[in-house]
Specification:
With about 240 residues, this protein is of the alpha+beta class. The protein folds into 2 domains: about 80 residues, 2-Layer Sandwich (Phosphorylase Kinase, domain 1); about 140 residues, D-amino Acid Aminotransferase, Chain A, domain 1 (2-Layer Sandwich), CATH 3.30.470.20. The chain has 6 helices and 14 strands. Strands 8, 9, 10, 11, 12, 13 and 14 form a 7-stranded antiparallel beta sheet that branches. α1 runs parallel beside α6. The longest helix has 24 residues. The radius of gyration is 17 Å and the shape is globular.
Length: about 240
């Protein structure tokens, strides 16, 4: 597949058209951003690591019956996937309190939540991705009806259950993560975007060491080493 027209450029990826009108190519970038773009850096090789990790996780979720946009990994930094209409809702799935949940609600860092929390953010950089409730989603026409929101919540929890067990077998705790969904050519809602330490919080189950983009957010260093360790554990999985 050959890249043709640049359709969209985000913080972590470029989206390109290709010869097939039903498919797009994602190009994973080495750039890092945090705090709504206020902190920026470049980590050579980060894009390739995220592409490889995302590929393995998409393949695993597809085997588990999760509908996704994934088609195949083209090369180190490029992924082929279905063309979709993006639903402009960032779906945040939380198992343990940290980050904004701790800051905004005062829940102690590291508190295991009594149930899986699913939140919605408005995917809108100009507005700094504000929180959404169901009525906001309907007013903004982000979905057709409340049943679609319930389906998105259901899929987010199902994906969480699958990946929590998957990561636990690798000695990693799935703290929280961000998902995105879109509509395929048949108007089905499917999982899209990427599945990487850029949008997953992962802690080593024994040491508690952070193995995700918090290493950049918090100035801990060693981000590439952490991402490489996540990939190596995934590659060692027999699932």
């Amino acid at each position: 597949m050959i890249k043709k027209e640049l359709i969209y450029e985000g913080k972590a990826k470029k989206i390109w058209s290709c010869e097939d009108d039903n498919l797009y190519i994602s190009e994973f970038k080495d750039e890092l951003t945090a705090f709504n773009g206020e902190k920026k850096a470049t980590e050579e090789g980060k894009g390739a690591l995220n592409n490889k990790i995302s590929t393995k996780l998409f393949e695993y979720l597809v085997k588990k019956g999760i509908p996704t946009h994934f088609v195949k990994m083209i090369d180190e930094t490029h992924m082929l996937h279905k063309k979709v209409d993006v639903i402009r809702i960032e779906v945040i799935v939380r198992n343990i309190a940290t980050g904004s949940l701790t800051r905004n609600l005062g829940i102690k860092e590291g508190t295991v939540l009594p149930f899986t929390l699913v939140e919605f953010d408005y995917k809108n950089d100009a507005l700094s991705d504000p929180k959404l409730n169901d009525q906001h989603c309907l007013i903004l026409n982000l979905v057709k009806n409340e049943s679609e929101l319930e389906y998105i919540r259901y899929m987010a929890r199902k994906i969480n259950d699958i990946l929590k067990d998957y990561y636990a077998d690798l000695g990693l705790t799935l703290v929280d993560f961000k998902l995105e969904f879109g509509r395929d050519s048949n108007d089905n809602i499917i999982l899209i975007d990427e599945l990487s330490p850029d949008n997953f919080r992962l802690w080593d189950s024994k040491s508690g060491e952070k193995m995700d983009k918090d290493r950049f957010r918090q100035g801990l260093g060693g981000l590439k080493v952490a991402y490489e360790e996540v990939l190596n554990r995934i590659l060692s999985s027999k699932k």
